[in-house]
Amino acid sequence: MLSSRRKFAGSSFGGWPHRTIIAAMVALVLLPIEVSDAGWLSDVFKGSSKRGKASKRVASPKPHKKLNAPKPAALKPAASKPTAATCDPAKFRIVLDVGHTAESEGAISARNVAEFVFNLRLAQRIEQKLKAEGFAETRLLLTEGKARSSLVKRVAAANNLHANLLLSIHHDSVPNSFLENWEFEAKKSHFSDRFSGYSVFVSRNNPDFKTSLSIAELLGKEMKAQGLQYAQQYSQHIMGRYQHPLLNKETGVYSYNQLVVLRKTRMPAVLLEAGSIINRDEELKMDSPERRDIIGSGVTAAMKEFCDYRWGILGPL
After folding, report:
1. In the sheet that 165-172 helps form, which strands lie side by side, from edge to edge?
2. DSSP strands (E only) in 36-126
3. CATH 3.90.800.10: does it fit domain 85-314?
4. Nearest Cα to 167, choosing from 104, 212, 227?
5. N or C, which end of the chain is more exposed by having fewer CB within 10 Å?
């Protein structure tokens, strides 16, 4: 904006004709919306002190041209200028990775239900919603086997599907040191009501970290818009080796560089911890169709906005 301290002199401004000034002001008004956010991603990569302020806006992501792009170098400010994504939902292939397997079930909930069961039900609902909204190429990825071998299988399967995005679906727990004992239906169980909420993870080692981060930001923003709160404990020292850098304190996006499904895939990849199933109250919510619908709607809205940034501003076109 022009400084208010500068003054007009007759019909010119600093020697400029009046018509030129009007034309310039009109041009400023008609600038694409994404120009206002041009420096946002560079602030994230630099760890800028302005992150808290900038994170209130979500940058329009640049479309990725290659799935097996080389590992990106640190972005220069000029390289972070976003452009509107142009992906076609009908052709954009999203692989929904169901976290864990029937043989390696992940966390156990406060009421002794395996995380894998929660992951599968939520991933199926997200798949239904995405396909209903035009993302016809959405694929559900189920793997078998023990933890380590299944990780190799799921990465290979995602790469072979030539996906445009891997979204890994999980439900959260806490370190063992936070667990408390209780009995549920006459069985010994564990719980921790100390923490709750969703969280979104990306890896800087992903070959397309920039797009991964853009999608993660949109997902976190839409989860928040659905009335959900993110889990803040991962940025705290009490988490020990489970502590991770918080990239956006508004939307709950964290960096977790070593996760295999995020760093070994050849496409953008995001991991969603949908909520805590070791928290007794939140477990009940996560087990409800209503919560699965809310999360599914958040994921769908994020992907719509990714493919057409105008959707996030104007709603369905």
Report:
1. 139-141, 94-98, 165-172, 269-276, 199-202, 253-255, 246-248
2. 94-98
3. no
4. 212
5. N
